[in-house]
Please model this.
Amino acid sequence: MPKKKIVWKQNLIKVPSSVLTKFERAVDHEWVVGTVKKIPAADIDFGMYEHLDIRFRDGVLDFPGRVLPNPAVGRWSKTNVDGKEIVRKDLPMYPKTFAFEAPNWGDFSSGTHTVYNERMVYPRDLIPPKYLDIVIDLIDEQQTSSGTAYAFRFSVDEVLHRFSNTFHDDLLYNLNILQENTGRSDIFASSATIEEYRSTVMINWEILPVGKRDENLHRILKGVRSESVARVAIERYDILERLRPTHIIKGTSGFSRYFGAKFADNLVVFENLNTGNALYVMYEDWEELSKKSRTELLKGDRDGFERVVHTKGWKTTLENLIELHRDLLNF
Model:
């Protein structure tokens, strides 16, 4: 298990709408649950991915080509290795006989005899273990302002057939395997190329260190000529930094007028440099959501983010949302 507690959302209750949308737009019949994640070297060095055996050995990045998920990581990884029994309380109980050995005359040295005991029980369904591996590929290495970052492709080693009777259940199962172990989950056509995976991690954000206020503000406000905009941006920067983020984020494209604060792998707040606009608290696939325009976000089903308008009480609302999602990530 990692030395640092896993801070990402581990389980999915249902298949995300972003995944379902892919099926609606595609003609492919065979799919693989997979994702690409850009991981800072510092997180690897700190042991956050030791459960996948991704680590540095003598200063050199080392990882397996595939790994069986550690059952200690979460309930889906455990089911994958140990299987699971489901008690069917929706069905009537039935009598079941249990046998155990008891000592003769209360003394095991005198031998034992079998005792039979009957009691009413619910039927149980057995979900057998699947022993699915996670396949790991290093597809890119990037230098950022915070140091080296590695883009890994993670995929569950099972091809899912869209018209299989068990497709939806298998899909949710595999998404959760990946979500527990990487904090991300998505799907790709089984024929997808490395380039198609790599295209999902375009650098749209510059990751800046906390505690470097003047340097960060200089980067964020570069090109901003309005004193009133700069004043508001500085005020909001200070508010975000007081909430104890792990990193500051500056938009480089798409959300180029936004800067933000990262509190966990899947918990990011974005502020707008333009006064009068709302901020966004994104807690599910923020890198994917951040590629969308404001119009696209507001037209969608709003899964994975909260929009906070800068009206009276917005600071308290923001603080409450951050604490709520921090608690959920640590649950």
In short: The chain has a mean pLDDT of 83. The longest helix spans residues 167-182.
